[in-house]
Amino acid sequence: MSQGPSGAGQGLPVGDIVSRLGGTLHGDASVRVLRFAPLERAQSGDVAFLARAEHSRQLEHSHASCVIVPQGVVPDARFAAVIQARDPYLYYARLSQWLQQLDAPEAMRGRHATAVVHDSARVANDAYVDACAVIERDAVIGARAHVGAGCFVGAGAVIGADTRLLPRSVVMHGCRIGERCTLHPGAVVGADGFGWARDEHGAGVRIAQTGSVVIGDDVDIGANTTVDRGALDDTRIADGVKIDNLVQVAHNVQIGAHTALAGCVGIAGSARIGAYCFIGGGVGIAGHLEIADRTVIGGMSLVSRSVRQPGHYTGAFPLDRHENWSANAAALRHLAELRDRIRRLESRLESQNNPAHDKP
């Protein structure tokens, strides 16, 4: 049996869940749930969800106290409570946050004895700075923010209210992080962008990266993800963006609101990604391109030109000498047109070779 969270007490009554999150309740409103569990392993006190109606046979072997199902699924009498929801997965997301809050420890305030905080830094009275964290001069730490163990906040950086910097995350000088954000372990915001000129001998000459990083509210940045500061302008990430682990966001990149980037995405400098996009894992995006709002890019695709019309795009191309790759890529874009032309020519040749077929 799954173990209940230590801070959840007697759990949430199902009736309270429906009152807060909506849905249609069938069964006993007083049933209490402590935690989520997969359908096949759920036991008494667990709540589980069925994402899609066509998978309803998965309910047959579940022992959950409550299940969340799509609206078209008929409630099963074996369960003490059933919640019908328009989008069970979204319902699960919201309820999971609520259950997690029940188990969350009481927020800490102040600073650990080993934290190093510059005298000019402004740290809210109800914020917390954990062990071995460093906060440099003129940095601002907002209300109820948490700066985890071993974190670094550079000079003049701003951390918004209720934002969490998890252990060993870094916010470099002058960067701004909005409210209710989370930086997961090892995330680095504000490192120098990759900017080099070549001298007459071909050696690299560093270009000073004088911009910053500006991050909106409710942004998540995954473990070991890097967001580089701008060269001249700022790198900007809008409200609600979700970035997975091991993502590279280069200098001057702009990412629109509520876009999601899966793991190992690489975005080259000055690319502009619209709002409500989804970029699949391992996608590479070339520099100075634009991607329209509400565009989906399939995993492991290479984006080498701007995408100006929303839609679902997928594709990559084998490595080759650049001149061959360019010529083949240009031909590939016309492949469907060429196929149709060949079919028409074949049909015309067949008609010429078999004139009898055309006679009434």
Core attributes:
11-stranded parallel β-sheet; alpha/beta; Udp-n-acetylmuramoylalanyl-d-glutamate--2,6- Diaminopimelate Ligase, Chain: A, domain 1; 10-stranded parallel β-sheet; 360 residues; disordered N terminus; 4 helices
From the N-terminal CA to the C-terminal CA, the straight-line distance is 78 Å
From the 3D structure, determine the CATH topology of the domain at 12-103.
Answer: Udp-n-acetylmuramoylalanyl-d-glutamate--2,6- Diaminopimelate Ligase, Chain: A, domain 1
Q: Number of helical runs? A: 4
Strand segment count: 39
Strand content: 25-35%
| Shape estimate | flat
Averaged pLDDT: 93
Main beta-sheet annotation: 11 strands, parallel
Radius of gyration: 27 Å
CATH superfamily of the domain at 12-103: MurE/MurF, N-terminal domain
Helical percentage: 10-25%
Arrangement of strands in the largest sheet = 8-11-14-17-20-25-28-31-34-37-39
Question: Can you tell me the residue ranges where pLDDT is under 50 for at least 5 consecutive residues?
Answer: 1-8
Report the CATH C-level class of the domain at 12-103. Answer: Alpha Beta
Question: What class would the helix/strand composition place it in?
Answer: alpha/beta
**What is the CATH-assigned architecture of the domain at 12-103?**
3-Layer(aba) Sandwich
